[in-house]
Write a structure and sequence with these properties.
By secondary structure, this protein is of the alpha+beta class. Helices cover about 50% and strands about 15% of the residues. It contains 13 helices and 8 strands. Strands 1-3-2 form a 3-stranded mixed sheet. A 3-stranded antiparallel sheet has the order 4-6-5, sandwiched between helices. It has a two-stranded antiparallel sheet with strand order 7-8. β7 and β8 form a beta hairpin. The chain starts with a helix and ends in a 5-residue tail after the last strand. The C terminus is likely disordered.
């Protein structure tokens, strides 16, 4: 983990101008038992200290957020040389802007995963509550009722975002990791990322991140959007992955197909589910949503992503041979998928657990 934090420090500062990097040296990094704060920067020791509890009880995304906050404090001292300002003064705000750091990620401030999984409180979170209620109705054993509930949930999400764009009011965005950091990702991971971006009003980017289990830097999908949209998209991501694993186990029960054939199956499932969502959009009454077929994009979200990642690049993978029979079987199963509300497990990370659909 210490090696990982050192790698994350390098990743956090690599976009800085060379003039800044000449003054900024990699600090010592230490773990310590702390109850009242997640971390701190020590000017005297040239050391960033992080809470052991933060690393062992919270997601790596939360750890990164606190680490970059403390790097901003280091930046103020070693680059700006503003030791007489308040700790969270104007120079610190400027450093946070340069490092894309969260200026509030310290002290008793809730970690990123705590904020993602906190109980609904604001008026905007009523959106999530409403969607959860509709997803709960989608558990109905009556296929028609379940399909109708999921369709209503999708329409409600869309209506909320159409209204959000129409109001054009300032809004806060959050970024969150979905899936596991890994050195290699399969084709279905990219297909699932596109599904979230096309239907759930988030922007996805594959970002470099330290993979603790492998001891190397890999990549993970990070989605950005309003807190409400990111919560919903994160849930859908986990649900679809679980659905694929469950139905692949059934499909491959009497066979010995390779991991590559699972990719064919998974891509088919996602393709089938996308076709289903597109059909639902087309079937929406035009008087309720005049933009039923059009893709909705938030220009403010695009600006946020460009600010956070100023050097975005697009990479195309090479075409691979696919087993069309398995892909088509996956498409048929994907068209039957219904997103419904599952169970939530409290504990480390409080990851959402989904009931196994029959």
């Amino acid at each position: 983990m210490l090696h990982g934090l050192s790698c994350e420090w390098s990743l956090a500062v690599e976009e800085l101008d060379s003039a800044y990097l000449e003054k900024l040296r990699k600090p010592l990094i230490r773990l310590h038992d702390m109850k009242n704060k997640w971390g701190y920067w020590s000017r005297e020791k040239r050391e960033i200290c992080l809470s052991r509890n933060l690393l062992f009880e919270h997601s790596w995304a939360s750890v990164r957020e606190v680490l970059v906050h403390e790097i901003a404090h280091q930046f103020v001292d070693e680059v700006f040389g503003c030791g007489n300002e308040p700790s969270h003064g104007p120079s610190f705000a400027r450093a946070c802007c340069l490092l894309r750091a969260n200026p509030r990620a310290s002290g008793t401030f809730s970690t990123l995963d705590q904020r993602m999984l906190s109980d609904a409180a604001s008026p905007e979170d009523k959106i999530v509550v409403r969607v959860k209620k509709l997803m709960a109705l989608a558990q109905s054993k009556n296929q028609h009722e379940a399909e109708a509930a999921m369709s209503k949930a999708q329409a409600f999400i869309r209506k909320y975002n159409v209204a959000l764009l129409a109001d054009d009011e300032p809004r806060d965005f959050v970024s969150f990791f979905v899936g596991k950091p890994a050195l290699r990702h399969f084709r279905e991971d990219y297909a699932l990322a596109n599904l979230l971006q096309d239907f759930y009003f988030v922007f996805g980017i594959w970002v470099p991140v330290y993979v603790v289990e492998k001891g190397k830097v890999g990549r993970v999908l990070e989605i950005s959007g309003t807190m409400q949209n990111v919560r919903i998209a994160s849930y859908v991501h986990d649900f679809v992955q679980h659905y694929i694993d469950l139905h692949w186990d059934r499909y491959n029960r009497k066979q010995t197909l390779s991991r590559y054939r699972k990719t064919d199956f998974a891509v088919g499932v996602i393709e089938g589910f996308c076709a289903k969502l597109k059909a639902q959009k087309r079937d929406q009454p035009k008087q309720q949503d005049r933009m039923a077929v059009a893709r909705i994009e938030d220009p403010k979200l695009k600006d946020h992503v460009v600010y956070k990642y100023p050097r975005i690049s697009r990479i195309r993978g090479k075409a691979l041979t696919m087993n069309r029979t398995i892909v088509n079987d996956g498409i048929g199963i994907g068209k039957q998928m219904i997103i419904f509300k599952g169970m939530e497990q409290k504990g480390k990370g409080r990851k959402a657990l989904l009931d196994r659909p029959e």
